[in-house]
Amino acid sequence: MVGSAVKKTADAVMAGLKALWAATHTLVLAIAAGGTVAVLVVVIVCMIALVIGSGFGIFFAAEPAGDGMSLADAITQLNGEYQDRLEEIENDHPHDRLAITSNDGSYAIAWQDVLAVFAARTSGAENGAPVAYLDEANLERLRQIMWDMNEITWEVETQTHEVETTPATDTTADATAATTGEDSDTTDDSDENEDGPATTTVTEIVLILTLHHKTVEEMREEYRFNPRQNEYLTLLSAEDAAPLWADLLGGFAMGELGGEILAPGSDTTLADGALQWPLPVAGTITSPQGYRTDPITGETSYHSGTDIAVPEGTPILAAADGTVTVANALDSWGGSYGYYVKLDHGGGLTTLYAHCSSICVTAGQQVKAGEVIAYVGQTGRATGPHLHFEINTR
Q1: What is the DSSP string of 319-330?
Q2: Element (H, E) at 367
Q3: Pairing of strands 339-346, 322-328
Q4: Rounded to an integer, what distance in angstroms lies between the CA atom of residue 99 and that of residue 92?
Q5: Taking the model in full, what pTM does it have?
Q6: Contact at 8 Å (CB) between 387 and 316?
Q7: Residues 347-372: pLDDT tens digits?
């Protein structure tokens, strides 16, 4: 009985929340036109009160209230604490190379899931607190849930490889060249070596960080949610809530080209014709996939993708039809990838697009080859604006 009542209320809240923005705009227009708006004002005030008092109040936390902070500021602070922990582990364990893996294929904190669990657990408790503003108590609740859902483990291994090395060029210089149209002075020594790339034996101490991400379903069980918390979590995690979360995400920007199909650059196919070039311009490949001299550390290490230098803000295109499996728009570090998108093209083929300035797709979305999915940037571990493009098969 309680669950049924909560569901009816939550369904009404979801519908009301979607209508609230349109109603607010209508109210503004009506006032500007000098119309009678008393009834509309009452309706909107009631809708706002209903939403703020529920788990959906999280969507009103975008702006600071009272002695609280904005949601963006809270996430920035907690992202910083998470990154500090990663760096602490790195500093405490000397290594030649860092490798990051995860249990779900994602390297970023799924803030949409964390916030859904936080809002449901906090507002749906028997003595629930509102989540429309983030005071110290709510920030601590959010922090605890973030850590409960994002555990970090690590191990150190010694690995020996016989590798061919390829020097990397300066990404910033090539991005500038791409902007001005001038040739970069940086050259690839391997191209000038008549004997081919150099071969060397590399013995590395590898620090392997493993990120353990828990799902909302796992947290539902772990926290032993009551019926009201369960209903809130189900609705906040539903597919039709995705647009609301997208509006709230800091690295999400639909932009003028979002969803449009653009022609690729001069190199139109990759991987035996299965994939098209992921940019509307040719760009400059500054570092191919494989072992290379790392442009930041100067050490020989494995590079898991192809770096293509182009100006910041250049649209990034889906290399083939597929489904968005990861759309990290909030964790600006993202396991060193920054804001990034991962696509599943079926048959074991996936592509990944990293270091974006912003993205314009959401997880679960279907995209077409050539569709704009993100914009070039330098978030995460990057020396300048470029696209880090990975192709994986399994």
Answers
A1: SSSEEEEEEE-S
A2: strand 366-367
A3: antiparallel
A4: 15
A5: 0.67
A6: yes
A7: 999 999 999 999 988 888 899 999 99
Q: Which domains are seen in the chain, by residue range?
A: 2-52 (no CATH), 251-393 (2.70.70.10)
H-run or E-run covering 310? none
Amino acid at 19: A
Assign 89 a pLDDT band (cuts: 50, 70, 90): very high
pLDDT tens per residue, range 168-223 = 555 444 444 444 444 444 344 444 455 556 677 878 899 999 999 999 999 999 99
Output phi, psi for 171, to 5 deg: -65, -40
Contact (CB, 8 A) for 359 and 320: no
The CA distance from 372 to 260, in Å, is: 6
Paired strand residues for 32:
none
Could you report the per-residue pLDDT of 143-165, keeping only the tens digit for each? 999 999 999 999 999 988 776 66
For 57-149, where are the E strands, in sequence order?
A: 97-102
The torsion angle over the Cα atoms of residues 175, 176, 178 and 184, rounded to 10 degrees, is: -100
Beta-sheet pairing, 306-309 with 386-393: antiparallel
DSSP line for 52-103: HTSGGGGGGTTS--TT-B-HHHHHHHHHHHHHHHHHHHHHHS--SEEEEEES
For strands 198-213 and 97-102, give the pairing.
parallel
Is 282 buried (19+), middle (13-18) or exposed (0-12) by CB count in 10 A? Answer: middle
Q: Which residues, at least 6 apart from 360, have a Cβ–Cβ distance to it below 8 Å?
A: 252, 253, 254, 255, 257, 258, 259, 372, 373, 374, 375
The type of residue at 267 is: D
Please give the structure tokens belonging to residue 80. Answer: 């910083």
